[in-house]
From TrEMBL:
The keyword Repressor applies. Transmembrane segments: none annotated. The keyword Repressor applies. It holds the Pfam family MerR_1. This is MerR family transcriptional regulator. It comes from Ectobacillus ponti. Residues 11-79 form the HTH merR-type domain.
């Protein structure tokens, strides 16, 4: 997972993000206000972004060029987060059932409605 750690580490200043993406600092702050990117703040209040944030901003730019509104982008982001949460929960539940079955031989597979 080392690949993920460098992508999610918040180390890039808003000025560098502006240079990389071609967006103005004001545009970047706007996307933060619209809850599309989530920079961390230093003790002095400086925004710090990750490579993942830069990728998301580039995706936002492409979607905006295709006529997608920020509200729609946010809804899609929430949908993807919910899907990931459900998948993570399902995997965790399967692992627990497997462990119970291995230790006690009692866990029966649950059937989930589709």
């Amino acid at each position: 997972m080392q690949d993920e750690s460098y992508k999610t580490k918040k180390v890039i200043s808003i000025g560098a993000v502006s240079e990389i993406t071609g967006l103005s600092e004001r545009q970047i702050r706007y996307y933060e206000e619209r809850k599309l990117v989530f920079p961390e703040r230093t003790k002095k209040g400086t925004r710090k972004y990750s490579f993942q944030d830069v990728e998301r901003l580039m995706d936002i730019i492409n979607q905006m060029e295709d006529g997608v509104q920020t509200f729609e982008i946010r809804q899609e982001l929430l949908r993807k987060e919910k899907e990931k949460e459900m998948t993570d929960r399902s995997v965790r539940d399967q692992m627990i059932r497997g462990q119970l079955n291995a230790v006690f031989g009692i866990a029966k597979p649950r059937r989930y409605p589709r």
